[in-house]
Specification:
With 363 residues, the chain is mainly α. It has helices spanning 5-26, 30-47, 58-72, 75-78, 89-102, 110-114, 116-139, 145-156, 163-169, 174-200, 208-232, 238-262, 264-295, 300-311, 315-324, 333-355, and strands at 79-80, 83-84.
């Protein structure tokens, strides 16, 4: 099947724009490079939709385009008149959590009954491997205290709500994924504060009870409202059911842009180092999650599932927590970097497993 001309034209436009951007970067003339880079990424985001194996990268490329815009023109993302856009972060996270609640039901927990071993391993990996890896990484690096605390907070987060999509693409166990996402998210308010107290106390002051209440407001109350909506009003507002995925996507993009704009100076000073740290944390999550599942002799699908759910963190929730701490430009910076990076690595992993030869059982 031929790629539609609109996609081909978009890719050609992206290549031309990228060439101009690289020219200006090479000339160390960064200001005019910005518009070309933003245009290249936005065009590429549309263009890859015409190719089956790269469609999963479209949203990640769109985020990268917005991130570039936020870094080149931060003032447009920080205020609207006298209103500070950072105030939108918490409501946006609550809206995303509400959307998660509207899509949840008893069926989401069936995997707990059918295969409790896999669920316990998946949730256990999320709250042991990832916090431990984050602590190890910051212990071996020289990040400023609040940046280091942000990396640890990212490690303590529950599984990303986007992981079921990646598990579907990877031919993994989607039902198990949804159960792990649901349980890890629901218990996160009671686990994250104490993990942070234990692991991050040396970097910033942690008040576990205050943090717990903040996370309950961000997670449990909106999810509870979403569950109520799903139980009593689902199907009666079709427009809302259809709109929530797009609202969530828009919310994630806007949150990342605001954090990047707010933390521009910190990111420019340590951008590559922070990027590398988050990348290592993310990839090690996939690797250790997979081998932990393999150690317990789970099926191939479940190993893939636990690898993805372990490596993918709910970066949006971390951003919301950082906002309640009043440290969005420092503690929240690792989560903003993680969003697009995680989308890229998970897409690659899912594409690889989608074409890999499957085995019935891990030996």
């Amino acid at each position: 099947m031929k790629t539609p001309s609109a996609y081909r034209l978009s890719l050609g436009f992206a290549i031309a724009s990228l060439a101009f951007a690289l020219y200006y970067f090479a000339s160390e003339n960064l200001r005019p490079a910005g518009p070309f880079l933003i245009t290249a990424l936005a065009s590429l985001s549309f263009g890859v939709k015409g190719f089956k194996w790269f469609r999963g990268l479209s949203f990640t490329l769109l985020i990268l385009a917005v991130v570039s815009a936020a870094l080149f023109y931060p003032k447009f993302f920080l205020t609207i008149g006298d209103f500070e856009t950072a105030e939108l972060i918490t409501p946006l996270i609550q809206l995303i959590m509400f959307g998660m609640g509207t899509s949840m039901g008893l069926a989401d927990f069936l995997a707990l009954i059918k295969s409790p071993k896999a669920v316990f391993i998946g949730v256990g990996c999320q709250f042991t491997l990832m916090p431990g890896l984050a602590f190890l990484i910051v212990s071996l690096t020289g990040f400023p205290e609040e940046i280091a605390a942000g990396i640890i907070l990212l490690g303590c987060a529950p599984t990303s709500v986007a992981s079921p999509v990646m598990c579907y693409l990877a031919k993994a166990n989607v039902a198990l994924t949804i159960t792990i996402v649901s349980i890890s998210t629901l218990i996160a308010p009671f686990i994250i504060p104490f993990l942070m107290k234990f692991l991050a106390e040396g970097y910033i002051e942690i008040n576990p009870m205050a943090m717990m209440w903040n996370i309950i407001q961000i997670v449990l109350i909106p999810i509870g409202a979403g569950l109520f909506f799903n139980k009593f009003l689902a199907g009666k507002s079709d427009w809302l059911d259809k709109a929530m995925p797009y609202v969530s996507m828009f919310g994630i993009v806007l949150i990342v842009a605001i954090i990047m704009a707010a933390g521009q100076e910190s990111l420019l000073n340590m951008g590559m180092m922070l990027l590398l740290a988050v990348l290592v944390h993310n990839v090690l999550g996939y690797v250790t999650g997979y081998w932990a599942a393999k150690l317990f002799k789970l099926e191939t699908q479940d190993c893939r599932t636990i690898a993805i759910t372990t490596g993918m963190q709910n970066a949006g929730l971390v951003s919301g927590i950082a906002k309640t701490m009043g440290k969005i430009a420092t503690v929240g910076l690792a989560s903003a970097v993680c969003g697009p990076l995680m989308g890229f690595t998970s897409s690659l992993l899912a594409s690889y497993w989608n074409t890999a030869k499957e085995n019935d059982r891990v030996t």
